[in-house]
Amino acid sequence: MCVISRKVTTAMKIRTLRRHINESFKSLGRNGWMTFASVSAVTVSLVLVGLFLMVMFNLNKIAGDIESDVEVRVYLDQSITQPQQTALKNDLKGIKHVQSVRFQSKKEGLNSLMESLGNDKKSFSDLQKENPLPNAFILKTKKPEQTIHVANVVKNLPNVTDVRYGKGTVEKLFKFINIARNVGIVLIIGLLFTSVFLIANTIKLTIVARRREIEIMKLVGATNAFVRWPYFIEGLVMGVLGSIIPVILVMVVYRFAYYSLGGNLQQMFIKLIPYHTMTMNLSILLIGIGALIGVWGSLSSVRKFLKV
Amino acid sequence: MDDVILMQNVWKAYPNGVMALNGIDLSVKQGEFVYIVGPSGAGKSTFIKMVIRELKPTRGKIFINNKNIANLRERQVPYFRRKIGIVFQDFRLLPKLTVYENVAFALEVIEEHPRQIKRRVMEVLDLVGLKHKMRSFPDQLSGGEQQRVSIARSICNRPPVLIADEPTGNLDPETSWQIMDVFRRINEQGTTIVMATHNREIVNKIRHRVLALEGGMIVRDQQEGDYGYED
């Protein structure tokens, strides 16, 4: 009965796929310069995206490393009594955002200080006899941004002589990372949209040239998917081509950064993301983004030509 | 039901408010040959676009091959189009493809097997008398020959119905007769033909059923009718 709805074969035949691939490469060649322009646009965007992500990933990792280390040291009055100390500990625990409170006796404090001094500790061995360090509580907050707030509260508690945290450095680092992240994201989104637009435009040109062909295809019963395939492949190819140079560049730049800079940073207890992890992930990401922009650009420009 | 085309109370209003069709009722049987005539703006184009599902009716039902295409989903349109042949005034051939390729294109697009394609293309080119020109390009052909290629393409899917919108509109009288001869042959094979035309000579000479459209309505439905207008 139902003449129209012939069974739809979902699996594409190989010769059909071959036809689509042929068609798309033919068209890419025919519109050589526009293809070149679009691929270049993708390249430029992805180079910037790649470099930005390279820096951001590392900053994030460094920040993460430092974050987990950020603590607030609360130095106690030497004359504090045991009950006062217990009361203070409970007060500290009661402060919002405080995750843990650990007591560090003056002796422990001295030991850890000596350890960090390394070879120079001999000249301070006198201190063992008369320890000038006060007892302290070491606080950890749930989130590193909260250290500043917590420190300010603690400062005003009784029997507290001093409060220390990575003041300044921590604040500046977070501020910097946040600004960098926001500026970068805005910039990148802008660039990506430009690339999508350029690809869409290139594809549109090729479509206008093939408009009649699409019209006829639809007339003789080609499905939308059939019409769309070559353009899909075209966009994909342009996007992936555009990601080649960025991927190579990221590999080269990161090799340089990691091996020349990495050594210096290690003395500052900062570790960069390992070379292979970084380049592998970033390459996949860049190729993925390239493919996505290409396909998005091409399909968005085919859509309106399909209504025949 | 052996209606190839069945229209029930079909209305079409364009978004700008123009009423192009005002309640069309129509039945076309298998194997019929029907002329659609009428002055410009009478609704002929809308009628054709409706039958090939380029437009949806505002109201009413249109059965083509017993399937109501008024509520056909967008996804099903391609499969519907494979069951109708369409011929236009301007041929709509691809200039960069040869005659053979132009016809084969219609079968490639629906993913027909290559061996079938070859056999069928030769068959239809033979039917329209252009087998010897299969390697030519459209611009090397006369208008009549181009139209015959387009007819060959339209019937290569063996559609039960062929819709022709002014197929002789761009052709001189002599060539027009050749086209009509091709249509006769196709019609004799059992294919229903619906042809919108302005060609008075043809309608009056080769008598078939005539449907006259005026103001979006069928004002005349006459077996072996004449053209009936003086333009």
TrEMBL record, chain A:
TM regions (residue ranges): 33-57, 183-209, 229-257, 278-299
Gene source species: Sporolactobacillus nakayamae
Protein name: Cell division protein FtsX
GO BP term, example: cell division
Lineage of origin: Bacteria, Bacillati, Bacillota, Bacilli, Bacillales
Highest taxon, organism lineage: Bacteria
Family matches, as Gene3D superfamilies: 3.30.70.3040
Domain named FtsX extracellular: residues: 70-163
Record's bilayer topology term: Multi-pass membrane protein
Keywords linked to the UniProt accession: Cell cycle, Cell division, Cell membrane, Membrane, Transmembrane, Transmembrane helix
GO cellular component: plasma membrane
Automatic annotation (TrEMBL), chain B:
Subunit field text: Homodimer. Forms a membrane-associated complex with FtsX.
Pfam families (UniProt xref): ABC_tran (PF00005)
InterPro entries: AAA+_ATPase, ABC_transporter-like_ATP-bd, ABC_transporter-like_CS, ABC_transpr_LolD-like, Cell_div_FtsE, P-loop_NTPase
Domain of life: Bacteria
GO cellular component term, pick one: plasma membrane
Membrane topology label: Peripheral membrane protein
One Gene Ontology molecular-function label: transmembrane transporter activity
Gene designation per UniProt: ftsE
Protein's cellular compartments: Cell membrane
Name of this chain's protein: Cell division ATP-binding protein FtsE
Function: Part of the ABC transporter FtsEX involved in cellular division.
PROSITE patterns for the chain: ABC_TRANSPORTER_1 (PS00211), ABC_TRANSPORTER_2 (PS50893)
Alphabetical UniProt keywords: ATP-binding, Cell cycle, Cell division, Cell membrane, Membrane, Nucleotide-binding, Transport
Boundaries of every ABC transporter domain copy: 5-230
Biological process terms in GO annotation: cell division
Signal sequence extent: none
Coiled-coil region list: none
Keyword Phosphoprotein appears in the UniProt entry: no
Family, as annotated: Belongs to the ABC transporter superfamily.
